[in-house]
Write a structure and sequence with these properties.
By secondary structure, the protein is of the alpha/beta class. The protein contains five helices and eight strands; from the N terminus they run E-H-E-E-H-E-E-E-E-E-H-H-H. The chain is about 35% helix and about 15% strand. Bound molecules: zinc ion (2 copies).
């Protein structure tokens, strides 16, 4: 679900990747504006958890997983910024494109690199929604990244350990 203005081509590309990745139906649904009450004017950022609460209210069914995508910078009070956040109970997550755009931009493969980051962080948040927690393997999509360098180092795949945990907890149709 786009939150605010989000590049439509990016969203379509992301949906297509996630369909093949999770083997599940993925719909790009009608977006909404970011909730004004989430904006912290002093920080110029949106409080991510407030957005997740709004997404939970907007969900059609408790069985759906909803991933919000925003161009805005998001935060929680204990961190300067976030690439994304997820609420596994409510089954809602968010990915912010804002920090994924900065640094390490090579003029040759800017779009490719940016998209690979968006995909990794989307897979990460969806991983939380299907029951995974953070993983110590720096190549695994469930690795928690503090920097873009770390995002660029990891892959968009769950490692063998995470896959084993998934097979134990999730119906195979989700894999
Ligand atoms: Zn995480
Ligand atoms: Zn892992």
């Amino acid at each position: 679900m786009p939150l605010g203005e989000v590049d439509f081509i990016l969203l379509s590309k992301l949906s297509a990747k996630l369909i093949s990745y999770f083997g599940a139906d993925v719909d790009t649904i009608q977006g909404t504006k970011l909730p004004e009450e989430a904006l912290n004017p002093t920080r110029g950022q949106y409080y991510s958890t407030v957005i997740l609460n709004k997404l939970e209210v907007l969900k059609n069914s408790s069985r759906e997983l909803t991933l919000g995508i925003t161009e805005e910078d998001i935060y929680i009070p204990t961190l300067n910024y976030l690439f994304g956040e997820a609420d596994p109970i409510a089954k809602v997550g968010i990915v912010s494109l804002f920090r994924l755009k900065q640094e390490n931009y090579s003029f040759l493969d800017t779009d490719e690199l940016f998209f690979s980051r968006v995909l990794k962080e989307s897979v990460h948040e969806l991983g939380h929604l299907i029951g995974l927690t953070h993983c110590n393997n720096p190549r695994c999509a469930m690795y928690f990244c503090n920097s873009l360098a770390e995002v660029d180092k990891k892959t968009d795949r769950f490692c063998d350990n995470c896959m084993r945990r998934l097979y134990k907890t999730v119906p195979t149709s989700m894999l």
